[in-house]
Design goal:
- Helices cover 38% and strands 12% of the residues.
- It is of the alpha/beta class and 286 residues long.
- The protein folds into two domains: 109 residues, no CATH class; 150 residues, Rossmann fold.
- The strands form two sheets. Strands 7-6-5-8-9-10 form a six-stranded parallel beta sheet, sandwiched between helices. A four-stranded parallel beta sheet has the order 3-2-1-4.
- Helix 11 links the parallel strand 8 and strand 9.
- Helix 2 crosses helix 11 and helix 10 crosses helix 11.
- The chain is globular, with a radius of gyration of 21 Å.
- This is Glycosyl transferase family 11.
- It comes from Leucobacter exalbidus.
- InterPro entries: Glyco_trans_11 (IPR002516).
Length: 286
């Protein structure tokens, strides 16, 4: 054993010498879901596009998406059984900063090639949505509000925000139909019933999968997001579809706020193509 080092320290020191091969593996956290996973896969893709062999480690949660995005798993994701002793483990989190961790062009290229470029379950879900709602509103509730720790970080006055965002969307033209996509539709029925005064309101079919919900966001010509990485990816994909003229381009609205755990509470994931709601009555902490 090396002098003055514990066994674990000595092992780590030896591994740091061994793990100097050409291949890098992003150490994907085991507890993150699709919205966060996509940022790790994006990072691996942009490094590979530069000729740098970087991959993302497969997790039990990421395996759920292998059939939906097979090309992505063929090229960007490796399992633990495929790890090499010489692979460099890269622990970088959360890799979500638009304009810092990736550019708009890199984001578009990843979406076009890995999410839309080949026949996939996701492409099939998109094809089923015809016509899309005039305005889709994505409301993230779940553990953001049910778990005290996350509520302290992520909660804000969603009702007041939706009022402001809907008014901004109305300024671009009459709203003829609204679709609510949420992990808590009961809360939406209770708190957002006033939306029916603006236009007929619908929701996804019973039992709609997460993949189908993502497709609903991506297909919408006008989209209002809350502070959700899942929602952000719906907006990113919508940008690509609108640019290809598959859907009429009208706009995406998102809150400037993401989390009190982020510098300045700011949502640094927001695309520079989106309309940002900078403030709401009473403030984000109101």
């Amino acid at each position: 054993m090396m002098p003055n080092l514990s066994l674990s320290q000595a092992k780590a020191s030896l591994l740091s010498v061994v793990r100097r091969g050409p291949r890098e593996v992003l150490w994907t956290p085991a507890n993150v879901n699709l919205g966060n996973l996509l940022y790790y896969w994006l990072n691996a893709h942009l490094h590979q596009a530069k000729g740098e062999p970087r991959f993302a480690l497969e997790t039990e949660k990421s395996k759920l998406w292998q059939e939906a995005f097979p090309k992505l798993f063929e090229e960007l994701v490796i399992s633990r059984s495929e790890l090499r002793l010489t692979d460099r483990r890269i622990e970088q989190h959360p890799l979500q900063h638009f304009g810092l961790n990736y550019t708009g062009a890199e984001l578009d290229a990843f979406i076009a090639e890995m999410l839309l470029g080949t026949p996939t379950q996701f492409a099939s879900e998109l094809a089923r949505i015809n016509p899309p709602a005039d305005l889709t509103i994505n409301i993230r509730r779940g553990d953001y509000y049910s778990v005290p720790r996350w509520r302290g970080d992520y909660s804000f006055d969603v009702v007041e925000y939706v009022r402001v965002a809907v008014a901004a969307a109305q300024a671009t033209g009459e709203i003829t139909s609204i679709l609510l996509v949420s992990d808590d539709l009961e809360w939406c029925h209770t708190k957002l019933g006033w939306l029916t005064d603006i236009a007929p309101v619908s929701e996804p079919p019973a039992g709609a999968t997460v993949l189908h919900q993502l497709a609903l966001l991506a297909a919408s010509p006008r989209l209002i997001l809350t502070n959700s990485t899942f929602g952000y990816w719906g907006g990113y994909i919508a940008d690509v579809l609108r640019a290809s003229a598959q859907h009429k381009a009208q706009g995406t609205w998102a809150p400037a706020f993401h989390s009190r755990a982020f510098p300045g509470n700011l949502a640094n994931q927001l695309s520079d193509r989106w309309n940002v709601i900078e403030q709401i009555p009473g403030g984000w902490d109101g």
